[in-house]
């Protein structure tokens, strides 16, 4: 058998709502968070004031007989009752042995207080008679509305003629449907109804309350004139005071209500951001292809200065190094000289960022989805700058010199020196012949004289070595380009992750935490 989860305590709800408000700051519209802030302020203030005291208030429309019922409950005419409306213009408090009630009533802004004789049944109770909720005076309605938000228990006094009045149900009972546990609905002046009509009126009233979402609220009938039902209502108030839970239950209901109003900004799903497509467009915007081409050409240029035919190696110095021209010859070179992304490339980055955020926030409730997507898109300029920094800071291997370059360089110089030696030998023989001096015997290397063999051998072998070196340099350049592409892709992915993906993940985590906090507070 599956066990039902325990309902959160008030402190847990308040903590969760506090977390939700903090996380929603800057994302959820302030107007949506304002009621939650007000409830948290009230919860903090009420919890610190007279925790053993229960404040109950009689609320109702004009002519419902609140003041008469108040007097009947108190046992004497403390509240003025007149035919002229409105009668009650300021709240009146009847206080029964309620330690700390002074500070509590100061907070409630109820200056008119009447201490009642000791009554063990009502000890700890403060009963308020409030102005009409539909008073023709705006200030009276404001007082009633303010205290309806702050008192611990709500006694709704209705009369047979206006028990379905829209003001009571649409503006008060329906929004306070979570407060059924600390509410009592009283059909007052029941003596004005014929006995055979009372059951039908009560049945209709119960249906109206069910439509308000308060089907479980306690419903009593009273008559201040005859005293019918007054003892039952007095006993209900005594139970509220005796149990001492009304203040906490009211605050819990307040927290559930405001948290429930935030549910449409929470819940829903989100997924892990996939930055694959974004990395591709970022690589294009960062000029990775151009840099890879420059790495390949730079490798071939530098290789030519080591493995080319010695007499022609100096020609390589006449061509500028592609990496040096881009200021990418060293990771410590600073910012690169790569051209800025074209409008099409930057538009591609923006599209990639939007698709990243929009895909990760699919199923997320508004306004979170729009806010998270906008925050992500606002980081595009930062991403563009980070891409250039990432490329400039990548070690492209421009300072690496393979060991075979040295071997080729030494062999090339040796062969060229051999050719020079042969040429010098032949030159010396030519000079001796020109001067008609005796020529020494020239040794033979097979069919060729040694000087000729040295010259031809050095030239042919040197040219073949240079050709082989050029072919090997092409292979090495392609390998260097592949390594550079991998390093640049990793650098671009790192920049995209740091600037876009990680903040987006933080926003998604924040949203999930916000949703969990709202759900806990509203449960």
From TrEMBL:
Keywords assigned: Membrane, Transmembrane, Transmembrane helix
Residue ranges crossing the lipid bilayer per the database entry: 410-434, 454-473
Keyword Cytoplasm appears in the UniProt entry: no
InterPro entries per the UniProt record, alphabetical: GTP-bd, GTPase_Era-like, P-loop_NTPase
Domain G, chain residue ranges per copy: 56-188
A Pfam family it matches: MMR_HSR1
PANTHER family: GTPASE ERA, GTPASE ERA, MITOCHONDRIAL
Protein name in the entry: 50S ribosome-binding GTPase
